[in-house]
Amino acid sequence: FTINKVNNANLLIVELFMILFLSGVMMVSFMKIMWASMNIFNARYAVDTLEDLYKKMNEDKLSYGENINFKNYNIEFDNVTFGYNGNKVLENLSFKLEEGKKYALVGHSGSGKSTIVKLLSGFYKVDSGSIKIGERPLESYSKDALINTISFVFQDSKLFKTSIYENVALANRKASREEVMKAMELAGCNVILNKFPERENTMIGSKGVYLSGGEKQRIAIARAMLKKSKIVIMDEASASIDPDNEYELQKAFKNLMKDKTVIMIAHRMSSIRSVDEILVLENGEIIERGSDQELISKGGKYKELLELYDSANQWRVKDEEIL
């Protein structure tokens, strides 16, 4: 009887351990199922979010037409209203820019300068109103027509990990080698090429050389020249000029702007004072417009910005002298 009790007790203990073990296995399996279900739910939510975002991006993008010919290259903003995520940046903004003239947009950060060039470039479509080139709305032109008509020189121009030559040539695949080299010459790139034994075949990036901000900008200018666009947008194009590159860059800008409609945004007020007209923006509105001398004589916002720039520049020079 005693032996049977011991055997029964041992059996109960074994069964208990088996139950506990199986319970643990079942719990782990259950937790895995729950975890998988949560991941599936999160993945579905992420997919839905991406689909909504993609749909919103497509809604924000400019739709294109079929026109490929431009009557002229005059630019017009007609009662343009636009905002990001419901926050209005421009409201009923209207102005005209004449073909072949040089313009500068100035104003504090958030005044609407970059938004104007993004809308003109077709990065976004307006909420209301219209933007026209050559008396036709942007959306009436084909995508290729707009791409070929507008060139950009950004403050932080991006270069690809390939040769200097290829970084310029990609702007116009139909251009001959002579045309590519001429564009680099006019952009002041020969000073860059002379630094390297392989000249235009020098590789850029992790397996090649690294260029300064001013040198990158000259390559971007060469691209814009090779593209032969009628409209050039320079967004903060001269904000990072170093002293060694400033002279060459100014010559390159002059060559680029010849016979073009140019829109400039720059922190360096000295680089825009020779343009035909300056548009002063504040809270998405043009509050002043005229030449450098005209606006200075008015004693308004432009003169205030100019004085702020000169004051900041004087402090920078003093700091450099101390160092």
Largest sheet: 6 strands, mixed
Q: Based on helices, strands and strand pairing, what is the structural class?
A: alpha/beta
Number of strands: 10
Q: In order across it, which strands form the biggest sheet? A: 6-7-8-3-9-10
The portion of residues forming beta strands comes to: 15-25%
- pLDDT < 50 runs, ≥5 residues: 1-7, 45-59, 316-323
CATH architecture of the largest domain: 3-Layer(aba) Sandwich
The CATH homology group name of the largest domain:
P-loop containing nucleotide triphosphate hydrolases
Radius of gyration: 31 Å
Overall morphology:
extended
Determine the number of helices (DSSP H or I, runs of at least 4 residues).
Answer: 10
| Distance separating the two termini | 100 Å
Q: Considering DSSP H and I runs of 4 or more, what fraction of the residues is helical?
A: 40-55%
CATH class of the largest domain: Alpha Beta
Number of domains: 2
Fold-level CATH name of the largest domain: Rossmann fold
Average pLDDT value? Answer: 78
- Listing every helix as H and every strand as E from the N terminus to the C terminus, the arrangement reads HEEEHEEHEHHHHEHEEEHH
